[in-house]
Design goal:
The complex is a heterodimer. Chain A is globular. Chain A is mainly beta. Chain A is 0% helix and 53% strand. In chain A, a hairpin with a 4-residue loop joins strand 7 and strand 8. Chain A starts with a strand and ends with a strand. Chain B is mostly beta strands. In chain B, strands 2, 4, 5, 6, 9, 10 and 11 form a 7-stranded mixed sheet that branches. A 4-stranded antiparallel sheet of chain B has the order 1-3-8-7, with no helix packed on it. Classes of the chains: A mainly beta, B mainly beta. The A-B interface holds A 4, 30-31, 33, 40-45, 48, 50, 87, 91, 95-97, 99-102, 104 and B 40-45, 48, 88, 90, 99-100, 102-108, 110.
Chain lengths: 109, 114
């Protein structure tokens, strides 16, 4: 079956660094997306990894290990506006996204 | 400028009263999706269209129907909403050609069933 596993909730301090882990099992693999979703709003695209390694984009970085079925999203210099849910979504062999329930990130001053 | 537009943003209906949600896109993308998302849960794919080719997920209830009259528009019809259908309904698009591409989401339509 297809399965995504990420922590339900994490708490971090403003200005700090946080890493959100995601493990996955899919039927085939065509890359992995990370989306940010603020409460009551639609998801917005953060990153896409298809090859192993780290992709850096400003304060956000995303890492992929295909052999381990593992990805993480790294957020640096946390700001209060980063309080949101972060959804890990690998793409299967049919090019369909398999969504995790998301990790709710709470930022404290 | 918004590229995927959903209407209405908020919809209140009574139990059993049909509802139609609309989605339009200015991206000229081939693929359009309808997702249902309940609080603290993953988005659940209901349908997707690749051009006019309709794909229904196996576990999408018959109560949900969809139409895509042209490239730009897609509709979600809920024939007899129940209390369990209260959710955020998300429309998304993607290029669909040249390999995987990101999904562009509309702002969502939040459905309340009384």
């Amino acid at each position: 079956g297809q399965n995504i596993d990420q922590p339900t909730e994490m708490t971090a301090t403003e200005g700090a660094i946080v890493q959100i882990n995601c493990t996955y099992q899919t039927s085939g693999f065509n890359g992995l997306f990370w989306y940010q979703q603020h409460a009551g709003e639609a998801p917005t695209f953060l990153s896409y990894n298809v090859l192993d390694g780290l992709e850096e984009k400003g304060r956000f970085s995303s890492f992929l290990s295909r052999s381990k079925g593992y990805s993480y999203l790294l957020l640096k210099e946390l700001q209060m506006k980063d309080s949101a849910s972060y959804l890990c979504a690998p793409m299967d062999s049919n090019y369909q996204l398999i969504w995790g329930a998301g990790t709710k990130l709470i930022i404290k001053p | 400028d918004a590229m995927v537009i959903q209407n209405p943003r908020y919809q209140v209906t009574q139990f059993g009263k049909p509802v139609t949600l609309s989605c339009s896109q200015t991206l000229n993308h081939n693929v359009m999706y309808w997702y249902q998302q309940k609080s603290s849960q993953a988005p659940k794919l209901l349908f997707h269209y690749y051009d006019k080719d309709f794909n229904n997920e196996a576990d999408t209830p018959d109560n949900f129907q969809s139409r895509r009259p042209n490239t730009s528009f897609c509709f979600l019809d809920i024939r007899s909403p129940g209390l369990g259908d209260a959710a955020m309904y998300l429309c998304a698009t993607s290029r669909g050609t040249g390999g995987p591409g990101e999904l562009f989401f509309g702002e969502g339509s939040r459905l309340t069933v009384l």
